[in-house]
Amino acid sequence: MRKKIVAGNWKMNLGFEEAEQLIEDLIDLLENINMDTEVVICPPFPYLEMASDYAQESTFKVGAQNLSAFGSGAYTGEVSGAMLQSMDITYCIIGHSERRKYFEENDKMLTAKVNQAMANQIIPIFCVGESLPEREAEKHFQVVRRQVRHGLFHLDTHEFEKVIIAYEPVWAIGTGINATPQQAAEMHAYIRTLIAERYGQEVADNTTILYGGSCTSKNAPELFAQPGVDGGLVGGASLKAAEFIEICKSIK
Ligand code: PGA
User: Fold this and answer.
1) Number of domains composing the chain
2) Is the pLDDT of residue 33 over 90?
3) Residue 233 to residue 167: CA distance in whole angstroms
4) Domain range holding 171?
5) Distance 9 CA to ligand 1 centre (A)
């Protein structure tokens, strides 16, 4: 079902006490507002249980930033989809460009991760997006098409309907240079066309597609007002409670 979502990707930031403080600040702010937007936080693995406990008493949901491509067993250092499910984790970011780049996560591995999420009732927030050289070479549609097809189009309709897609141009992540609202709208429309070709128009219309990359409370209102932009995946700006909540409130 198409929803309005703002998800905070904390990446590898904050100590335990800082993380707890941020969650408490978010809860205070959330109590005073009435929004249709679903607010999601994605803290590092060691804080998920704490976040999940707090979430029981609040309106936000919790996501992980990654999960293993394997089911269980002798995979030192990995965290499985089943473990996330056992902690009531709702979402998992899969295919973030930092994982693709620094951890060499390729299409095949990401397909396996999507399958693990599906098998454990975790909703994937599947990230796609082109690099700067790819955009400059006007290959951005081609790149995103490959990522969406390889990562997701093996799913049957029923499974695909659960997926959330985040369009995050790599050149916009952590750079302070967000995509223009027009660039975001154009790519979101393109992704929806791909989904319509594979799963039909109704499924495409019901898919939630987020924008990510240097989202702030300043640029979010215009970005989120674009047709086809259903919210955001927010990195740096999700580490400050008031700023993050302002971004969440930008969805009208
Ligand atoms: P940013 O990160 O908001 O800091 O650019 C977004 C993301 O990587 O999800």
Assistant:
1) 1
2) no
3) 9
4) 5-249
5) 7
